[in-house]
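Reviewers of the previous submission asked for a worked example of the structure-prediction workflow described in the proposal, so we include one complete record here. The input consisted solely of the amino acid sequence. No template or homolog information was supplied to the procedure at any stage.
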Amino acid sequence: MPPSSNLPRKRGQSLAQTVVDHVSRMINDGRIKPGEKIPSEAEIIAELGVSRSVVREAVSHMQAAGMVETFQGKGTFAKSGVPQHLSMDPNSVESMHDVLAVLELRIMLEAGSAGLAAARRTEAQLAQVQAAFDEFVDCCRAGMDTTNADRAFHLAIAQAANNRYLYDALNHIGSHFLPRTRMFTSRLHRDAPSVHIERTMREHEDILSAIIQRDADSARAAMRTHLSNSRERLRRAFEQNENAGH
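From that input alone, the workflow returned the following structure tokens.
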């Protein structure tokens, strides 16, 4: 087991994000030029004292952000046009403004994901999307928590898009950012559960229908509508909560 990392990091920042920042600085200050190989897993482990899983998570973040690209058997290489700062740490979500910003990111990524899924999905992948939808509906009708079923539906669509970088990015958001955002939304006054559930089931059904029909434009539109409605509902709930506090 590698020693505990001595790498300086911000309070609450994950080790993976700290590795991302470290490599980003090497690229930005010219120590690693576009097209050059970044340090190997073994080199990063030896230098920073982090685990192999932390390095792999950091590389996944950098790939999703377009910072690096990996070629099997050759290594991972820096790309040009790297942003000066990559915020991939869920602890950066510190306000309702951040929660809404995460939803904006999901709208951009997941609308594209749904469109690709409609165009590229296999019959086996469609069956997975259908099964996830059925599980979501069953949870809704039984009055059970739908969090996991909802996430499974969205990830099944991302899997059907057949773009592993897109899937990795959405999986990271779902695994790390959404639990953080729920800390801010759980206290808000929302619509009656029955109203919210019926609306969400219809929105999910519209997405599924477009994917079944291989209608990429309708799938993108349905996903955008679904997540935009979610964002608008949260925005209104937040404003009502703020007004009630005055």
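Residues 1-5, 82-86 have pLDDT under 50 and may be disordered. We consider this example representative of the routine output the project will generate in years two and three.
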